[in-house]
Amino acid sequence: MENSSPNPGTRRLAVLGGAPAFPQILHVGRPNIGDRDRLLARINDLLDRRWLSNNGPFVQELEARIAAYVGVKHVICVCNATIGLEIAIRAADLRGEVIVPAYTFVATAHALQWQEITPVFADMDPATHNIDTARVERHITPRTTAILATHVWGRPCQVEALAEIAARRGLKLMFDAAHAFGCSHQGRMVGGFGLAEVFSFHATKFLNSFEGGAICTNDDALAQRIRLMTNFGFAGFDNVVHIGTNGKMTEVCAAMGLTSLEGIDELIATNRRNYLAYREGLAGLPGIALIDYPQTERNNYQYVVVEVDEAAAGVSRDDLVRVLHAENVLARKYFWPGVHRMEPYRSLFPHSHLLLQNTERVAATIIVLPTGTAVGPDDVGKICSIVGQALLHGREVRLASQASTMATR
Ligand code: T4K
């Protein structure tokens, strides 16, 4: 459903005293609901069956369908990607230090630190926002056991180069694929790279199971350990053969996941339509660069990401975010200020920023804009027009920002 109010091109920006362009908040990550009737029918089924969790039929069906879609041998659905990462990390026996990007969601590092493995932050490649492969090697020490890289925005890492370093230096390689369901790299779907990859199916993600995720691997022994660990280590009634936790996905989550999976082509089309509308609407605005998705690959277009070059735009990223929030566009600054600037990492590694200059610089320029089925092309047009107006009235916007900063001091 689209919000309706006058075209922002003809009105005063809300940050300068006008009325907000949108009567209701537009969120980044507003969940896609999919076919409600199919979902409700599935919920009725699971209630009739009285099978609500513990490797139920919907979880098994979802695992099989994801395995076929991604082209990977084993898929283990889990309650969320953070627990999925923790389990995969432990099942793969990572220890000591693991190299991760600083430009990712905090869960990537937390999944390591939670089990007393030290995340070592590597800088990003400003062209892709992914871990800079060339910088990885300088962080390898005798304690390093693995590289855990994130496919940021669903754009795959330099998988082959990372695999080459991992093989040469005797490290394991895993991927946080939270953003990358439905994306491909050199024609192969994300999910089958490295030792294991972990998807997120959180409500805000491309494929949504309310909360959820999946660990994918082609390694039989690892898959077996992950399955055991996801269910307390049980290998049958009364028989615990391994350390484990409760990482199980529930049936209601799998019902949502299946429904979401069935709508995936439509969802990609909607996200792509919005992405192209943003591209058109933002084209030519100085200092505003929308990130690209490779046209030769499959993309889910779940993230509409803009880099703001303050010198060229005449306004800063934070000015622009303030402008958008005033208009009820809840744009986000993912993944600012970088995981290394969050606790416990900023206290543990107070100097890590010295080797993270690209992360620091780029993270301060990023805005993520709303998309998905809750956002229509007219909404996109209005958002682009707000950005254009903000640039046009840069001086006033900057003064309004300064005034609001002073007022909050
Ligand atoms: N690795 C990476 C690279 C990740 O990005 C993530 C998650 C993970 C690992 C861990 O995956 P999970 O363990 O979550 O499966 C959100 C999501 O909560 C988080 O899942 C996601 N990344 C991250 C990028 O975004 P927040 O702190 O920004 O969430 P929040 O509550 O501010 O929600 C985002 C927006 O969505 C808000 O404007 C409100 C809106 N929203 C949210 C929910 C849950 C709705 O409109 N409806 C909803 O039901 O982290």
Task: Tell me about this structure.
It is a single chain. The protein is an alpha/beta fold and 409 residues long. The protein is 39% helix and 14% strand. It has helices spanning 36-49, 57-70, 81-91, 106-113, 133-136, 159-169, 220-230, 251-262, 264-282, 310-313, 317-326, 345-348, 357-363, 377-392, 394-407; strands spanning 26-27, 74-78, 97-101, 118-122, 144-150, 172-176, 184-185, 188-189, 196-200, 213-217, 288-290, 304-308, 329-330, 366-369. The strands form four sheets. It has a seven-stranded mixed beta sheet with strand order 2-10-9-6-5-3-4, with helices on both faces. A three-stranded antiparallel beta sheet has the order 11-12-14. A two-stranded parallel sheet has the order 1-13. A hairpin with a 2-residue loop joins strand 7 and strand 8. Helix 3 (81-91) crosses helix 7 (220-230) and helix 9 (264-282) runs parallel beside helix 14 (377-392). It is globular, with a radius of gyration of 22 Å. It binds ligand T4K. The site of ligand T4K has 23 residues, from helix 3 and helix 4.
